[in-house]
Amino acid sequence: MGMVETVGLVLHPRRDSKVAIDTIVEWARDRGVTVYGLPDEIGRIDCSAVAVDADTLVECADLLVSLGGDGTMLRTMRLIAGRPTPILGVNLGKLGFLAEIDVDDLPSALSFIDNHEYTVEPRMAVRAILPGDQSVTAFNDIALVRIPGDGLSAVAISVEGHPFVRYAADAVIVATPTGSTAYSFSAGGPIVSPTVEGFLVVPAAAHSAFNRALVLSADEQVILEVLPTSGRLAVEVDGAIGAHLCAGDRLTVTAIRALAWVVRLGTTSFYERARRKLRVNDSAEIG
């Protein structure tokens, strides 16, 4: 018997996933595998997947299939966070960093997974404790972002209780290795291998002489304190606003190792995806 008895689907909210779902359902039917999906997602598509709530999907699925792009993959990772269930990412559109295959590759990929012919790549997350003890978790980044018209993001950074630097910037970003190719990259941060156990603190458009990123160990705790000179800030969690902060508020951030597991079939490497997605070119001086 194969390892997959139930497949859980997570869909992009707008992209057409009908062909991909039909392919998965047909593969599952031939093997007696049950396909689950969230009611508000599969309800807009004519398919035979079984509608279940999020808790049941997480509890019962042997494999989660994310149909969309990197945003859908991040949502799937947050949904399954803390469980060893593997996630297969399927591109529906632009090339992403997290998705492993295209729709045409689905039947063979599912069979490889069913036959245990795959590896998994652990993905780290960062977790922040907000004022009021609210907890948020991100697989890409948590950013303290200035609100237009409210002044700069003025934030003091302390590592393991030791004050280090005060940034005045458009945003201060705490990014995982996964998130190093997202907002952090656009702010000038380094590309970090997903196998590195660490995280980044990166200022975006820093208005200060020191504008460098920090690379921290996954075992270190960082505190971000909003300074009296700061404007009101939005806390963005993987790009979505999770809260707002004012002067005097503090954010405590820690890394969590291996909070999600992404399927890899060996078809492409992280560096191949990075070169294509980021359009990395060699120096013009190299002949």
Automatic annotation (TrEMBL):
It catalyses: NAD(+) + ATP = ADP + NADP(+) + H(+). Belongs to the NAD kinase family. Its main location: cytoplasm. Its cofactor is a divalent metal cation. It comes from Streptosporangium album. It is found in: Cytoplasm. The gene is nadK. The keyword Cytoplasm applies. Gene3D superfamilies: Probable inorganic polyphosphate/atp-NAD kinase, domain 1, Probable inorganic polyphosphate/atp-NAD kinase, domain 2. The keyword Cytoplasm applies. GO terms for cellular component: cytoplasm. Coiled coil: none annotated. One of its GO terms (molecular function) is ATP binding. GO terms for biological process: NAD+ metabolic process; NADP+ biosynthetic process. Involved in the regulation of the intracellular balance of NAD and NADP, and is a key enzyme in the biosynthesis of NADP. Catalyzes specifically the phosphorylation on 2'-hydroxyl of the adenosine moiety of NAD to yield NADP. Transmembrane segments: none annotated. InterPro entries: ATP-NAD_kinase_N, ATP-NAD_kinase_PpnK-typ_C, NAD/diacylglycerol_kinase_sf, NADK. The active site is at 70 (proton acceptor). This is NAD kinase. Keywords: ATP-binding, Cytoplasm, Kinase, NAD, NADP, Nucleotide-binding, Transferase. It is an enzyme of class 2 (transferase). Its EC number is 2.7.1.23. NAD(+) binds at residues 70-71, 75, 140-141, 170, 181-186, 205.
